[in-house]
Amino acid sequence: MCAQLRWDEGEGVKVSRKVTGWDIDGLKSEEEKENYEKAQKQWRDKSLKSPVLNEKSSGEELQREAEWIQRNFVNHLNRCCKKVKVCARSKRWWTAEIAENRKILGSIKRARKRGEASQQQVKSQLSNLRRIIRQSKTKMWQKFFNSNRRDRVWLALRYTKP
């Protein structure tokens, strides 16, 4: 899910950026509803100013329009959405709570090596971390299956079989 975007900023300035993605679902959350509606309105207003292409449009006009859409859409997403970096180790279920508990586990393990914590404390925190991860994964899958795009379930099936 990584794209290499290139466009001309004008005056011979070529821009090339590696974009991995944006958290659009985060923008759709209840807390961000007002910002989501504002972002939709801003894009609608900006795109209405763009000329409408038809079957008589030349290839050059089509190319210019595609570059305009790409440049403006990327800029719009950069302003409105949180950027996310997606890589092979990225996990949709990873949350700030999990990250915090992982840090705590690491500090307890280091304390254990220094003799300041017991093995029981390490086991307890590890158990807690695993429980939180299981809950997060379950929540993520339930959200996925209950989404309004039921056809995406079959897309997930492709990744479950070798």
What does this structure look like?
The chain folds into two domains: 3-80, no CATH class; 96-158. It is elongated. Strand 1 (3-8) and strand 2 form a beta hairpin. The protein has helices at residues 24-27, 33-48, 59-80, 96-114, 119-145, 152-158; strands at residues 3-8, 14-19. The two termini are 20 Å apart. The protein has six helices and two strands. A two-stranded antiparallel ribbon has the order 1-2. 1% of the residues are buried. The chain is mainly alpha-helical. The model is unreliable at 1-9 (pLDDT under 50). 59% of the residues lie in helices and 7% in strands.
Task: Summarize the entry for a quick read.
This protein folds into two domains: 3-80, no CATH class; 96-158.
> How many structurally independent domains?
2
Largest sheet strand order: 1-2
Arithmetic mean of pLDDT: 78
How many helical stretches? Answer: 6
Choose one word for the global shape: elongated
**Any idea what the radius of gyration is?**
23 Å
What percentage of the residues does DSSP assign to strands (E)? 5-15%
Can you summarize the main beta sheet?
Answer: 2 strands, antiparallel
Distance between the termini: 20 Å
Low-confidence stretches: 1-9
**Helix/sheet category:** mainly alpha
Series of secondary-structure elements, N-terminal to C-terminal? EEHHHHHH
In total, the number of strands is 2
Q: Name the helicity range.
A: 55-70%
